[in-house]
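Peptidase M24 domain-containing protein, Streptomyces haneummycinicus. Tokens?
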Amino acid sequence: MWAGIAAMKLGNRLVDISRAVETYIRRQPKPGGGKYGIVEDYGGHGIGTEMHMDPHLLNYVERKRGKGPKLVPGFCLAIEPMVSLGTPKTEVLSDDWTVITTDGTWSSHWEHSVALTDQGPWSSPPPTAARRSSRSWASRRRPTRWPDIRPAAGPSAGGRQGSGRRQGKLAEPGITAAPDPPA
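Tokens:
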């Protein structure tokens, strides 16, 4: 996920995030040998006026999808790698909610919502704080409000209130676009 966030730069394309996530996962040594499975049925997505919006963000590169939209200020994505110790194939259980790998191996899912500003990616919490707090689930804290994120403007100055957290207007909808048509 951190590699995907790092690839969320002005001028990059959606596929650059997918490539960064896939490359990082493929380079990791798997205990006992073999490769990690990168779950194919689910991935990241645009986020704005709705929870799940275009574009769909794969955690691997699929050449027939093209490069995807160019990343510009205001682009908001949920970057969420999903990795398994075995197959990348999944199935949904009868409760219509629980997803498991078809071979029953353990899997992992991690997610951050990230907005692209003129200054680069903005994540809540910031990646360095998230790395520290991810060690203790109970210690995780989220800001009560998001900074003002507008296309071509970046975050607002925002004021500080008693909590010491950055305050600003609620985020406006992100810029979303469907991926390029298959080549």
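Confidence is low (pLDDT under 50) at residues 133-183.
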